[in-house]
Amino acid sequence: MNLLEKLPTPKPNIKSWCANSQTSPDTYETQVYPKISIIMPSYNQGGFIEETIRSILLQNYPALELIIMDGGSTDETVDILKKYDKWINFWVSEKDAGQSDAMNKGWRKATGEVIAFINSDDYYEQEVLARVGKFFAKAKGKNMLLGKTRVIESDGTEIKVKTPCNRYSHLAVLGGRHAMPNNPVGYFYSREIQEEVGDFDVNDHYSMDYRFLLKAFKSADYISFEDAVFGNYRYDDHTKTFNNNQAKGSQVRLKLQRMAVEESAVFGEEYLRYLQKSHALTNRKFGLTSRLGIRKMLTPRINKQLEKIDEKLLALERKPSS
Hints:
Layout: H1 3-6, E1 36-42, H2 49-57, E2 64-70, H3 77-83, E3 90-93, H4 99-109, E4 114-117, E5 123-124, H5 128-138, E6 143-152, E7 158-162, H6 168-173, E8 187-190, H7 191-197, H8 208-219, E9 222-234, H9 240-248, H10 250-263, H11 269-286, H12 294-316
Parallel strand pairs: 1-2, 1-4, 2-3, 6-9
Antiparallel strand pairs: 4-8, 5-9, 6-7, 6-8
């Protein structure tokens, strides 16, 4: 099906592949593909949401469920949702209790075997759903599939490409040494994982995704990585990621470290001791003064200590008993 010709004409500000291209239906083999439910929480992202929607639809994935939970946007968002209404499985625009609430409502409406979330100002790379569908069609058990993410400016200019970690302890130590899967545009997972982990915390509007990842990494039977860019996410002064990092700094890091300790209790006391030592060293490193060359002198020494702790944590890491 030439969906590109059937979809409405996009706004001229869309410059990415989904403005005038699509994944060919011939990409998909004659096999049964699992249904992928993509859930999009949204609020006042009318300048970007059309690109996000098109990057999903123009995958031409044969078993797609698109759910959009808008929090009552007052910009052009609703007009765009109406524009694409025919191709969206479910959408609503109504007041909610924030992003976590929208995500909870969305995943509970989803019926797919595979779950993914995407923010309404981000977009997928071409053919990513073909990769994901083929993987989950063959996968057994509870799986997470991770890919690279491209960090972009508001106008789409690339900042960098991030490769995520796929080990629990690398996720738990924080400190920037191992890039976490820090945007949902870069991962897909079995529905059973979401059901086991449960809802996102509606009282947490900034770090609910980190808590989810800690729980999901423990829940998954297999965490796989594919060496390809799955999606693009914007990092500018309108995003919560930016405001988190710039305005709160060490307070956010300490909050995430507390989460990591809470979620890691299942690995035992020895694991927790090493994890807390890792966090303490990381905080010490970030707190070093640059005066008199102290930071330059002490950072390599601390990094060596952190590397040794990483090795201990990896050795102690195990699937917690249920």
